[in-house]
Design brief:
- The chain is of the alpha/beta class and 479 residues long.
- It folds into two domains: 162 residues, Rossmann fold; 269 residues, pyruvate-formate lyase- activating enzyme (Alpha-Beta Horseshoe).
- The protein is built from 19 helices and 17 strands.
- The strands form four sheets. It has a seven-stranded mixed sheet, sandwiched between helices.
- Helix 9 packs parallel to helix 10, helix 10 packs across helix 12 and helix 13 runs parallel beside helix 15.
- It is globular.
- It starts with a strand and ends with a helix.
- The C terminus is likely disordered.
Length: 479
């Protein structure tokens, strides 16, 4: 089978950082590497990275001529993937369509029913599951691969969960299948030991990491490709294994990588200290993202992150002493949030004066504790949206709050961005940032005026759903 892995095009350009990213999709590179190592004829198509619209994406898929199209999509991208699958099936019903990623893992049956153009869903980590699915399709066998979900007529079938992978046994991501980039996101570990109420924790509570040598070799490979300038380590908590980070940083210095590129990461306030921060800075780290989320002590106690204001202050002071820049991430709309508690978070951010601040509004992502609360109308949440395009932290409208009117919370969000800079004498810095986020700011302002981004949220009409049994049997016989 010829396999094409696809990152679908966006509905519209609302957040350029994500809708027109400067980096290729990491999950495509990981999946492609695994399949290629097993002699699968695999290709990639990153529509967001390559700036392709829907028509251009369909044309590229027809040019490749795949037997199977594998799609990725987070919750706010799932309709984009479903739309592309519909177009693919309308052109060639014989193509097998498969979707994976976090949303499918959280709601496999619902996703398959909502997107009839999808033949199969991959639940959990996709490398082994997708390969086994391909093998069974090629052999014309009944699909029994663990981690696979599908509809047999109207009956939902799930083959059961697959064990987590040894990530150190996986091949280096296939970055050579993309055009060279100046920026890449590397996933050097999977898993997070914490249990935040707003996170599904799709990779599990056990942290599984690649060795420092493997990461260093990948960095050198990216340098060889010729364009890389910056790296973002997308690990949930980059410094959770301290000694590993020490060895990695020392390796960067020994190999001279700290002179060839800069890098950043996100981590937990409980896992950083001055000595580690200084070593990271010496190894080329430009900034560290700290998930602080709230300043409300009660919310800190109940959100499953294991932090308090004292630990946050200690971590930020460590960053300052090490002269390592840090960005602070906050989520307004915590369970039972009120205007007063949200304002305390803004005030805390202003007093902290981070080098960068991000204020998102709570999104009840499927599979999380917040999703469960919102489903039941508890925790100060009500009116859960059934439109997955609403599940966006900046301009979405996934849920209403009982403790504070949403539009008022959105005004606090906008005010937070302004206050962090203006009240700390950084107005010019704020003005320099405006051109990068003009489109997003415009959408936020229009939303406050009652003109939400309907063109993003409106779902186009769907073609008639494919006839699943006929399509699947025809593919199996051709295989």
């Amino acid at each position: 089978m010829r396999v094409l892995l696809v990152n679908p095009p966006p509905y519209a350009i609302v957040e350029p950082v994500y809708d027109r990213p400067a980096y290729p999709r990491t999950s495509l590179a990981c999946l492609a590497a695994y399949l290629r190592a097993r002699d699968v004829d695999v290709h990639v198509l990153d529509c967001k990275y390559d700036r392709l619209d829907l028509d251009e994406a369909v044309a590229q898929i027809e040019r490749v001529g795949p037997d199977l199209v594998g799609l990725v999509g987070l919750t706010n991208e799932v309709l984009q993937a479903a739309r592309l699958a519909e177009r693919v099936k309308a052109r060639n019903p014989a193509i097998v369509t498969v979707m994976g990623d976090v949303h499918m893992s959280a709601l496999p049956e619902r996703t398959l029913r909502e997107a009839p153009a999808l033949d199969y869903g991959v639940v959990g980590e996709g490398e082994e599951t997708l390969y086994e699915l391909i093998q069974q399709l090629e052999a014309g066998q009944r699909v029994t691969a663990r981690g696979v979900a599908y509809l047999a007529g109207d009956v939902y079938v799930y083959n059961g969960a697959r064990e987590t992978l040894d990530v150190s046994a996986l091949p280096m991501p296939a970055w050579d299948l993309f055009r060279p980039a100046e920026h890449y996101i590397l996933q050097t570990s999977r898993g997070c030991p914490f249990a935040c109420v707003f996170c599904m924790n799709p990779a599990g509570r056990t942290v599984r990491a690649r060795t420092p040598e493997q990461v260093l070799d990948e960095l050198e490979r990216l340098v060889e490709l010729g364009a890389v300038k910056t790296i973002y380590f997308g690990d949930e908590i980059f410094t959770v294994k301290r000694q590993r980070v020490v060895e990695l940083c020392r390796g960067m210095i020994e190999r001279g990588l700290h002179e060839r590129l800069t890098w950043s990461c996100q981590t937990h306030v409980n896992t950083v200290d001055v000595q580690l921060a200084r070593l990271m800075r010496a190894a080329g780290c430009d900034w560290v993202g700290l998930g602080i989320e709230t300043a409300d002590e009660m919310a800190m106690t109940t959100m499953g992150k294991g932090i308090n204001r004292e630990r946050v202050t200690r971590a930020t002071r460590a960053m300052r002493r090490a002269k390592l820049r840090f960005h602070a991430f906050f989520i307004l709309g915590q369970p039972n949030e009120t205007y007063e508690s949200a304002k305390r978070t803004i005030d805390f951010a202003v007093d902290m004066n981070p080098d960068g601040a991000v204020f998102g509004i709570m999104v009840p992502y499927p599979g999380t504790r917040v999703w469960e609360l919102a489903q039941r109308g508890e925790g100060g949440y009500t009116r859960l949206s059934d439109n997955w395009n609403d599940y966006n932290k900046q301009i979405g409208h996934a849920v209403e709050f009982t403790g504070i009117e949403r539009r008022r919370l959105e005004r606090l969000q906008m005010r937070g961005y302004v206050r962090v800079y203006t009240e700390n004498g950084r107005t010019l810095e704020l003005l320099r940032m405006v051109p990068r986020f003009t489109i997003l700011v415009l959408h936020m302002l229009l939303k406050q005026l009652g003109f939400g981004p309907e063109r993003v949220h409106a779902r186009p009409p769907s073609p008639p759903p494919p006839q699943r049994p006929k399509t699947r049997l025809r593919v199996l016989r051709s295989g």
